[in-house]
């Protein structure tokens, strides 16, 4: 039981559950059958487990160096070897599960997984650290939609922009710890201020792609999401100027990311209707 709980914690359960849920809801929105939705959820869950476990296994020495006692490997709740074996096993079953959605979808899912694993090592500490996020986030909606239709370019662009923005937002809280252990990804090279601006700009661009990308006039949902994103980011920028060190800019970026996910799910329904 201790090992099982350690594995659950090491897989980064919150983002794993969130991404799997979003993929399943997108599959429902695009009109996939119950079996198709289950196949999508199983594939994305396996790939997220692989990436999360690989991340913790690879980063265990760094996590110990900066005293991240909340990490299960550092806390001794599960061995590094067990987590690494779990990552390999989850990665191995991802492609067979993805084949349930067809060969093209399986190829895209495999590319998305490989890209995410390359971020874990070695690209996290390079100037191109943002690329795996962009590729993997674009691959997710492409994989889901390929089960029923050809994914449009605007959807892939929105996924890539959302992923790139998520990278900058995700790294912001850990910049100091990362610097202490030699991680020098693109956000670290740009610094906190420019990284926050990059996160906001990329997520706003993703919002615009989701609002204006679908054919026909923009929906009221898309326009409302775009207006809300602009207002939220303006509040975050104002807080950054008036109160340096405030968490509001970071929270504003997270809110826009959530808005983008909502618009992504709405886009899935549009694709199904089309």
How does this structure look, described?
Helix content is 79%, strand content 0%. It is an all-alpha fold. It folds into 2 domains: 1-151, UbiA prenyltransferase (Tetracycline Repressor, domain 2, Orthogonal Bundle); 165-274. Helix 5 (80-98) runs antiparallel to helix 6 (103-120) and helix 11 (192-212) packs antiparallel against helix 12. The radius of gyration is 19 Å and the shape is globular. The chain starts with a helix and ends with a helix. The model has no long low-confidence stretch (mean pLDDT 91).
Relevant CATH superfamily of the largest domain: UbiA prenyltransferase
In CATH, what is the class of the largest domain? Answer: Mainly Alpha
Query: Which parts are unreliable, with pLDDT below 50 for 5 consecutive residues or more?
Result: none
What is the name of the CATH topology of the largest domain? Tetracycline Repressor, domain 2
How many angstroms separate the termini? 48 Å
Strand percent estimate:
under 5%
- The percentage helix is over 70%
Per CATH, the architecture of the largest domain is: Orthogonal Bundle
Radius of gyration: 19 Å
Number of structural units classed as domains:
2
Mean pLDDT metric: 91
- Listing every helix as H and every strand as E from the N terminus to the C terminus, the arrangement reads HHHHHHHHHHHHH
Shape: globular
Main β sheet profile: none
What structural class do helix, strand and pairing data support? mainly alpha
